[in-house]
Amino acid sequence: MILHQVAPHSSKEMRSRKCLLGAYRPLILAICTLPFAPQLAAKTDNSPCPPQETFDIAEEIDQTVGFPDLSHLDPPFDEGTFERVCSDRLCLDHDPRTKSAIYVAAKLNRSVVCGDNNRPKNWKVENRVKTDRVAQNAEYTSSGFARGHLAASADFQAKFEHMEDTFYFSNAVPQIQDGFNGSYWRYLEDYIQDLAMNGHEMIVITGPVPMPPDGKETVVTENQNACGIEIRLPGFQKHGKAKICDENDSDNNVAKECIPPTGVTIPAGMFKIVYQIDQDEAFAFLMGNYDHRETHKDKPLKDLDNNQYLELHRVSIDVIEKLTNIDFLTRQYSRREDIIEESCIATPWH
């Protein structure tokens, strides 16, 4: 159950933690507040694109970071509840209750990102799962929400067919377009692609954060986040609805409930976990699903460059685990996993 305030791990919710912040918090906070560069780096490596690397994405995820542990979700993970789908470049677990992926995982490097293929235009209904509870284009039409990618299509510009694989509705969630999907979330996607273009090899896990049942905003306090940053995620009270569907696709019907099995769940926010394979380190971001052109506390966004604004949304991985009830980096041995997840690792801004 998602609480208004992020609750600590319990022994039943996650496996026991062996490494606590304790006396290391000052050091972690010092790392977290390292200054960022003035602007996001451009894709400066203009050398020819390398040959596309061939790999089994499921094996890469499993052997590098491990698939996320969904056993703490309600109901617990089983093949009859969630269905795993892997294409050439990404894997996801589809949730028929939300009609979207619980997470999407991909391996990114220069051979995957580098290319000049154009963005596909057409979305596809997820036909690779057994359930018929999948998102439909009509549920998004006139909803006021964008078809927001989890794994960005531009992550896979080396091959058009791989970009097309990101246009299944299982890889989308309803996102606010202006001030989020079309700007600040895209800036984060651009940054990750830039890292890959400049030689970094990563496993990137992206997913939605569910809204609490009471409809109120979720608050992650500074003390609950090793990065020392407060994060606020809106509830459905802000949007006026918890799902999008034909029944509430206009202003007049904004509060009308979707009749099952219709309805695609609106997330409170989005997370992105980036595991750097060569460094054996990971960092994470958490952003609310709202128009970020609104003032952030007492500092107008116009006074912040892209890096500075993204810095305001850095979190330790354990914050995301508590919000989603998902255990990440399961391939790591326990103590190393704890250190990574409970720390605020410096991001490799160029």
Task: Please tell me about this protein's structure.
The chain has a single domain (22-41, 52-341), classed as Extracellular Endonuclease, subunit A (Extracellular Endonuclease, Chain A, 3-Layer(aba) Sandwich). The protein is 21% helix and 18% strand. The chain contains eleven helices and 13 strands. It has helices spanning 25-32, 57-64, 110-113, 137-140, 160-164, 177-181, 184-197, 236-239, 306-311, 317-324, 334-341; strands spanning 83-86, 90-95, 100-108, 146-149, 172-175, 202-209, 218-220, 231-233, 243-244, 264-265, 269-276, 281-288, 314-315. A hairpin with a 4-residue loop joins strand 2 (90-95) and strand 3. The longest helix is centred in the middle third of the chain and has 14 residues, at 184-197. The relative contact order is 0.19.
The percentage of residues in β strands lies in: 15-25%
The number of helical runs is 11
| Radius of gyration over all CA atoms, rounded | 19 Å
Global structural class: alpha+beta
Total number of beta strands: 13
Q: Give the class-level CATH name.
A: Alpha Beta
Distance between the termini: 39 Å
